[in-house]
TrEMBL record:
Membrane topology according to the record: Multi-pass membrane protein
Protein name: histidine kinase
Transmembrane segments: 12-29, 35-57
Keywords: ATP-binding, Cell membrane, Coiled coil, Kinase, Membrane, Nucleotide-binding, Phosphoprotein, Transferase, Transmembrane, Transmembrane helix, Two-component regulatory system
Cited PANTHER family: HISTIDINE KINASE, PHOSPHATE REGULON SENSOR PROTEIN PHOR
Histidine kinase domain ranges (all copies): 121-326
Organism: Geobacillus thermoleovorans CCB_US3_UF5
Length: 334
């Protein structure tokens, strides 16, 4: 304790010692100053200084001891180490418990990974009966029945697709392949499965593509556009959905505009939240609130930015802003 106390005040002690030696040095050089008198004064001041340090040390040591006692009370392990002879036993028990927790954590992580693999396998296996179901539906002659079956089949297909991509999202960056993606075939591939649903609702598509290709990942860009187009069809009736691509300020834009129900202004800031469904259509059991949430998450590694404008009763416009090539190259290097 004394050693720590003196070490913390070494600068003050060094200054005092320097002043004493400096006074003696001046008295030695100056013959008009009696050296013996100065030496006596230095001796007295040194004794006074030492006494002062001892008194202050005793007073301040009491305070430091109280601080240490408070630390022991706040840290029961430290208190046990300081006061108990069972320190080694306690440390051994804690080490053993820590190893047990680590092992249990590894087992839980392995179990979660296995469940993930099993779910992905199940999703892929479900695609086989879905394909067979689609072939059977195509042979149904009653158009009303066929349209209803196709709608339910499409719902299952889209939900499985969402779940598949949701499981892949945490490792999405390992799966990216950035290239020039042709927009027209990509959009047609996403619109074609919705054809029967669109015909039933009287919905058409108007493609106005001034920009023919963009730099992105084709698979994940398809998934993002699928969520937006599906929502546009779901909340529209007897109207066209306009899809435009254009350049502005050196960036490519893709705009998807519908003329359906629109989004309430109070809902607009929350449409990308997980599980959020429209307050106006809150009773709609078909809505999962996951499509736009997953699209937003998938857009982040692709450096895509969303801008949404909507007027209730007049429709919604989703605009996707694509990054410039240099931005993507810089991000991939990082």
């Amino acid at each position: 304790m004394l050693k720590d106390y003196l070490w913390e005040r070494k600068s003050w002690m060094a200054l005092f010692l320097f002043l004493e030696l400096f006074i003696l040095f001046v008295a030695y050089l100056d013959p008009t100053i009696p050296f013996s008198s100065i030496l006596y004064i230095v001796f007295l001041t040194t004794i006074i200084f030492v006494v002062f340090v001892i008194i202050r040390w005793k007073k301040e040591t009491t305070f430091y001891q109280r601080l240490q006692e408070w630390e022991r009370r706040l840290d029961p392990i430290s208190a046990l180490r300081a006061a108990s002879p069972l320190e080694k036993i306690v440390e051994r028990v804690l080490a053993s418990q820590t190893e047990q927790w680590k092992q249990e954590l590894k087992e839980h992580l392995a179990t979660l990974e296995q469940e993930k693999d099993e779910l992905l396998s199940w999703i892929h296996e479900m695609k086989t009966p879905l394909t067979a179901m689609r072939l059977i539906i195509d042979r149904v002659e009653d158009e009303n029945t066929k349209a209803q079956l196709l709608y339910e089949w499409l719902r299952m297909h889209l939900l499985l697709d969402q779940k598949l991509h949701q499981r892949r999202l945490p490792h999405m960056e390992n799966d990216l392949y950035i290239e020039q993606v042709e927009l027209e075939p990509l959009l047609i591939n996403e619109i074609k499965p919705l054809q029967s649903w669109c015909m039933q609702k009287g919905i058409g598509f108007d493609l106005q593509l001034d920009v023919r290709s963009v730099l992105s990942d084709a698979k994940w860009l398809s998934f993002i556009i699928r969520q937006i187009i599906t929502n546009a069809v779901k909340y529209s009736e007897s109207s066209d959905i306009v899809v435009k691509s254009f350049m502005k300020n050196g960036h490519a834009f893709l705009q998807i505009q519908d003329f359906g129900l629109g989004i309430d202004p109070k809902d607009l800031p929350r449409i990308f939240e997980k599980g959020f469904t429209s307050t106006a259509e809150h009773q709609n059991e078909a809505a999962t609130g996951m499509g736009l949430y997953l699209a937003k998450k998938a857009a982040k590694p692709l450096l895509l930015d969303f801008h949404v404008e909507s007027t209730p009763g007049r429709g919604t416009t989703f605009t996707i802003l694509f990054p410039q090539e240099n931005d993507i190259i810089r991000t991939r290097r990082m």
